[in-house]
Amino acid sequence: MEVAESYRFGSVDYIVFLGMIVLSTGTGIYFGCIKKSKKSIDDVEPTLPTTTSTTTTSSMETRKHDFGSEKMSEYLLGSRQLKVFPVAMSLIASYVSGVTILGTTSEIYNFGTQYWFIAIAIILQGIAVSYIYIPVFATLQVGSSYEYLEMRFHSVIRSIASFMFILDEILFLPFVVYVPAIALNQVSGINLHVISAVIVIVCVFYTFVGGIKAVVHTDAWQTLVMFLSVLAVAALGTYYANGWDKLFGDAAKGGRLIFSNTDPSPYVRHTVWSVLIGGFSYWTSFNAVNQTMVQRYMSLPSLKQARASMAIFTIGVAAFVSVCCYVGLLIFEMYQDCDPLSAGLITHDDQLLPLYVVQSVGHIPGIAGLFIAGIFGAALSSLSVVLNSTSLVILEDIVRGCFKMRPSERASTVLVKTSIIVLGVVALSLVLVLEQLSGILSICTSMTAIAAGTTFGLFTLGMLVPWANNIGTAVGGIAGALLAGWISFGTQITIAAGGLNSQKLPVSVENCAANVTLPDSVWVDEEQVFPLYRLSYHWINPIGVATVIVVGAIVSLFTKPTELKSLDPDLISPVLHRCLPKECFVGRNHHAQAQTNLLNGQS
Predict the structure, then answer these.
(1) Averaged pLDDT, 436-459
(2) How far is residue 220's CA from residue 366's CA, in Å, rounded to a whole number?
(3) Where would you find the membrane-spanning parts of this chain (predicted)?
(4) How many Å apart are CA 362 and CA 105, to the nearest integer?
(5) For residue 212, which of 87, 150, 237, 290 sits 20 to 30 Å off, Cα-Cα?
(6) DSSP letter string over 138-183?
(7) Chain segment 79-90, per-residue pLDDT in tens
(8) H-type alpha helices, 394-469
(9) Which residue, 390, 380, 5, is CA-closest to 196?
């Protein structure tokens, strides 16, 4: 029997769910129409990056542009005066979508707990991002992260990376709308198109009206609702599972408790090495240089506050993903003797968690509504981040950077807000396309992974390879994108053709109410498959990133490498400053002292 046929929202569930919609639109109205920014000299006092003296520079005030007007600066960056906690919550919302919640739980159910090591990778990337990448952006005071590529290399590289980002985000749109909409439809029975339309319309409205302030503050409480909903499901699920001893005992008996798979084979889906290395590379590639994240770092007044928000983000996401992994074990505990997919209760793995919520705690008034609000909030927050950041890149990197246009304040406002509406329409349209073309979802996944890895490689080459030049960077970027694309698309084609064995752990249908039999598993000889197409998905991102860096560094060495003595040290990560020649810093310390004296009121 379909879940939608056996369950419908109660009045309490509707109240909780509608509360999410009302609060979201209300936040946009408050920040866009009611609360006016108080402008005074104290609000914009000069701020130096809080770091070592080697990264204090005149770039601070010369790079502190305002997208053509103070109004646009406030709309897109909050005049760089936002608070740490809301921004940290927005960072979490930037990354954690409904796909993360639904996908993580099903990953544990199907493949075991080795994936839980991703929490360690998240903590490691937080340290790397805070000390290698954020200081460079904070010193340069960029509005868009892609400005860095023009300052370090060439405007063409900046433009290509910007277009890649826009394409990447457009392909990401169906993820944040379609997958949660499917789940909500499964739980509530509400029409898929209605759910998708509500997500897009509500999100476009408060992003359009309130700008980044509305996005950040809405993200903050949406993240809290997300945490609360998953924690409630975890706590109640543990209670109904009769405690931790039985939970972990059954997980071990069912082969799900895996924490020490050190198999060196790159073909195994989850090992200690693939999860730690691949997870670190993937999370760093997104959180270090992606505009959706950098825009929030730059909305804070100083490097110290940016690092503080990153620390909260790292701890928060690691904890959240851990709770999702734990819920995956709860799902296995409930369905260990009757796999829902085999029994026909669901049609896709992403529906495991909604089914579990309905059947385990759905009888408690308001819990299903809270869960729906959490998934819905995750979709809203992820979509609003994409709309806000992409509109900024269109203005700053495409119109002002690529085409060298200088639109007026009014024209900039019209451009940015029109972009938000158009992207909303595209999101809704892609949902309709996804319904008809199921295979396109995996293609979108591959494209976003390729774009993220290639772009991260370009930034890393610029910040950590001082001799890198324009030619080396361009060749490295092309090589990395082609190799990652070759592996990714080749793997997708091989899977579609049935050339790879499923690595899912065994399931049972012994205690299903209906007479259910497991389908016969067909074994194929993977030795006949090209080795790169058999790789675990964790390795695709680090291979792409490493290719960009290694090829870029080598080609640069043989094509007139950058003269280190004339290199601006602000463009290199501070972790390498002690390795740069002293000539890089000539005249720099004098200006830094003058700037410090000015701030201290000395003559």
Answers:
(1) 77
(2) 22
(3) 14-33, 84-103, 115-140, 160-184, 190-209, 221-241, 271-289, 310-332, 367-394, 414-434, 440-465, 477-500, 539-558
(4) 18
(5) 150
(6) HHHT-SSTTHHHHHHT-HHHHHHHHHHHHHHHHHHHHHHHHHHHHH
(7) 888 999 999 999
(8) 409-436, 440-464
(9) 380
